[in-house]
Amino acid sequence: MKIHEYQAKEVLRRYGVPTPRGKVTDDAAGARAITEELGGRCVVKAQIHAGGRGKGGGVKLAANAEEAEQLAGEILGMQLVTPQTGPEGQEVRKVLIEEAVDISRELYLAVTLDREAERPLIMASLAGGMDIEEVAAENPEAIVRQHFDPHLGLLPFQARAVSSGLGLEGKTARQTQKLLAGLARAFIETDASLAEINPLLITGEGDVLALDAKMNFDSNALFRHRDIVEMRDLAEENPLEVQAGEHGLNYIKLDGNIACMVNGAGLAMATMDIIKLYGGEPANFLDVGGSASQEAVKAAFQILVSDPSVEAVLINIFGGIARTDRIASGVVGALEELGGVDLPVVVRLEGTNVERGREILQEADFDFLVAQHMADAAEKVVTAAAEKGGA
Amino acid sequence: MAIWVGNETRLLVQGITGKEGEFHALGCRDYGTQVVAGVTPGKGGQQVDGIPVFNSVDEARAETGCNATMIFVPPPFAADAIMEAADAGIELIVCITEGVPVNDMLKVKEFMKQCAEAGQQSRLVGPNCPGVITPGQAKIGIMPGHIHRPGKVGVISRSGTLTYEAVWQLTNLELGQSTCIGIGGDPVNGTSFIDVLEAFAEDGDTEGVILIGEIGGSAEEEAAEWIRDHFDRPVVGFIAGRTAPPGRRMGHAGAIVSGGKGTAKEKMKTMRECGLHVVESPAELGETMAKALSS
To answer: What b/e readout covers A262-277, taking b as 16+ CB neighbours within 10 angstroms?
Structure first.
């Protein structure tokens, strides 16, 4: 789960991470009031979940309260396009107003899970503000890496290793070590999957401040973090994905025109892949769950057909414990309840009682295209989508 | 022959009084597995279709001599259930539960390491996996037993239904399986591809292996390199998620391309370079294995 910058800073401040003073608002007049309160120059920052906001014109410096109001008015409501949003952009609903601080140097700090080492990993670099992936690609030795034990936390000598690896000295080094300890603790205690400060700022006086912050969380651990669940901003998520989540379905919207409904995540990915292999473009990832019940299939259908770019549907179900004939009845039942759909629907069923399952599909009022195996299904659905699109 | 699960398996089911736990405990028994005990704290003394329920794994172990466990405990308590089983010295722990927090798994791994250092070695398969089956002998998990057939192909996978797909293709080609193992779709899990491959290497009757990976992490690359250096039987490989958008979690917690790493393309490339028979289409797993075995 993702949260906004202002929320990430709120979480990190609880762990002693210093940030510039600031407040969030959803209207321009509020921006003026906050700037007056902060006492002058400030930065107006669009709050959307995607990164690269500055490049898209979502971060602006205001010399005074009047200008802050004007800039906030421009940024609020805009469709902010960044390298991470896609061409349609993301609507800005909130801005963070922060005191402007003088910048001497910018660093990069992040904690993430190193899957191979099965330990949290601190990554730090002097190239703050830059994308860490670019640094890793161009100049990998410029990244300081430090694993730590999730149960013991970041030990003082490990924090010192990071700050000296970055060449920091004196007060700046001490403050960075303290900040790192807080960041590491925040990462573990909130079940974060990423805690990133980019850039970490060093002021002219040598003090450190988190100028930007980003946190993602392990969705599986949200049951023990009520406060973080409350930070979820559904407006930032795809409405179809939100709707699918409410039905316990796993759905991810993609750019193609062939919708697919599959039981199991691995088979769902493989189905997308085989559609592509046969020259089609998948419109989504959708896992209806291992048993593919009638209710799940119905909810899934509703979501799939509400995507206007869909021109054909592929249902690929491997009936294991759940028998194929029952699944076929469920698919037919769901379509009957929905009053049919105006799209070609290719169904590929495999597993227990598959002959009976196929018969049920053939006997239904709806004209299913019944496929014999996965390759056949991919071929049929790609052809059907091309015909539908060309018609 | 086979690995890890067989006629000698004496299975405990943790969370047996839950709906899923009961259903699959009986499913395993119907397949032929000796299901000797269940555990649900507070429900000791009950029975589930004749299977005695105990309050703790220690108790179940002492009373029934169970040597493997299948866990259906809900995610907030699953890590505790695994550690309880490891503490009781259960040799094989299969955790089916999906949704265990990563931090809990880090704790589990540390605890199991301590148990092993104290001389008590358990193997954890999963979490978030379909389980382990040795066709014709026993199954520990939620896979449909009847699609399998005893034979000589080993199957290892991070997925559930995609594994069934591969198994079904093999069975339809009359290629049986020695043991099929779902290692699970989470970023931190108990058993790696290499752990399974090492066991297959020791098993003289496994003549070839199907390895099904997916995007995220680098376990497949490590497995491919291990195969290149240590495994001389044919391995057919597939990676799911070539069309997955970067930065999105594709259903499984571990199936994510992050920071440009863990892509299907990269994994398939490494697998090919290491001599695996990599298939582009998931529909060709069975045929490719058949060809590799006959050549």
So the answer is: bbbbbbbbbbbbbbbb
